[in-house]
Design a protein that fits this description.
alpha+beta, 2 domains, 4 helices, globular
Length: 187
């Protein structure tokens, strides 16, 4: 009899522990927080830092069959909207535009030349802060892209102060050091 009572209390205690324990279908809170933190670390933009503009490359910035035409950095509102909405990386407000070295060009209605087969490579991750700029991307045609350096806010106000970006770039394993891109606010 005593053994039956002990088993009954033991079984009741086990049922209580299982019933009060964590749900087997719920995600552990630690994983959700970690995933959210990892996603936030992929896209970092310093609040209040507006580096909006085009950072134009010189004609010699060639990577294989592609020439870097410019790097684009969106304005603060674009970053805020992108980060708040959790948009996919293919909507990131930071990108590089490459033109085929021997590709066809045309002229738009404003009289500006453009590459017919240009490739826009949007960031899979970025850091845009005072003193630090980093963009990482992967393109099916061009390959892996890494841009690392810094933006120079003085160039936003005074173009004569120097380049808007300095740093390095690696595109499909082709490394370019001492890269300078000139700031252009746009039309």
């Amino acid at each position: 009899m005593r053994s039956t009572i002990t088993r009954s209390f033991g079984l009741a205690g086990l049922c209580l522990v299982v019933a009060c324990g964590p749900s087997q279908t719920a995600e552990p809170a630690g994983e959700t927080a970690t995933e959210a933190g990892a996603a936030a670390e992929l896209f970092v933009h310093e609040a209040g830092f507006d580096a909006f503009g085009y950072y134009m490359a010189d004609q010699d910035r060639i990577f294989g069959d592609w020439r870097l035409h410019h790097m684009f950095v969106g304005d603060s509102m674009m970053f805020d909207a992108f980060e708040a909405a959790g948009e996919p990386a293919d909507e990131a407000p930071v990108w590089l535009e490459f033109w085929p070295v021997d590709g066809e060009t045309a002229v738009n209605e404003l009289g500006q030349e453009y590459a017919v087969d240009a490739r826009r490579v949007r960031a899979d991750s970025y850091v845009v802060e005072r003193g630090r700029f980093e963009l990482r991307a992967e393109d099916d045609v061009i390959g892996s892209v890494l841009v690392s350096g810094m933006l120079h806010p003085d160039a936003f106000e005074d173009l004569a102060s120097g380049p808007g970006f300095t740093g390095g770039m690696e595109v499909a394993g082709d490394l370019h050091r001492n890269v300078s891109l000139h700031y252009f606010a746009g039309d």
